[in-house]
From TrEMBL:
Superkingdom, taxonomy of origin: Bacteria
Cited SMART domains: AAA
Keyword Nucleotide-binding included in the entry's annotation: yes
UniProt-listed SUPFAM superfamilies: P-loop containing nucleoside triphosphate hydrolases (SSF52540)
InterPro entries (alphabetical): AAA+_ATPase, DNAC/IstB-like, IstB, IstB_ATP-bd, P-loop_NTPase
BP GO terms, sorted: DNA replication
Organism encoding this protein: Mesoterricola sediminis
Phylogenetic classification of the source organism: Bacteria, Pseudomonadati, Acidobacteriota, Holophagae, Holophagales
Protein name (record): ATP-binding protein
Keywords: ATP-binding, Nucleotide-binding
Annotated family: Belongs to the IS21/IS1162 putative ATP-binding protein family.
Amino acid sequence: MVDPRLERLERHLTRLKLVSTRERLDTLLDRGAQNEMSFLDFLDLVIKEEIESKDQKRARMRIQMAKFPLDRRMEDYDFSLQPSLDRRLVAELETGRYVANATNVLLLGPPGVGKTHLAIALARKAIEQGYSARFIHAADLVYQLAAASDHGALDEALRVFARPHVLVVDELGYLPMERRSGHLFFHLVRKRYEKGSLMITSNQPVGSWGEMLGDEVVATAILDRLLHHSHIVTIKGESYRLKEKRRAGVVPAKEVAG
């Protein structure tokens, strides 16, 4: 026969939405009895594990909402292959202080050096610290902003992209922007200025952004806001993909060098 107190406790835990505690109630009770915990220690254990469970669930939801195209983590990044990377700066970014201060992060370097990996890993780390994040390719971003503008909904689209604490804009500059796209991107930068962190990956140095964005004046205005509070991570090195192909013998060394 089930103890009526246990049934009542399970009902109360359900009403309080303490799902993890309800699901693990037998285990928690056994643990408390085996360790002869005081009432205070047992209550501390229950609340601690419930909070940890809720934090983990919230982080999983935020990771889904971030729409990362790949699962990339900082511990998987091979720093030995990119000796030019400032590891102290990366370690500073891992603390999440740039998010708290609404500081922007620019990850610059040639294709294949791991910019997107770092961006996703840092954004994921921010999510684990309680922040929200969103990932989007630059081409998709300007397309969505243009479509919203055409339908008279630009303000709403800008609010959507201004909402997350960290907005990762990947591959800015891989395709040249039309003048209109550059202007739309400026509206987004202005909307997030000193309110949220923009993390941008680009294969173009900032000196080329005028041509890339289709308007020197707009590029200057964008960079003025981006660089005011920013960290710039520059990666100089060979493409990971080419290195892997060379190791596998798919691409001859002389072909890579050329």
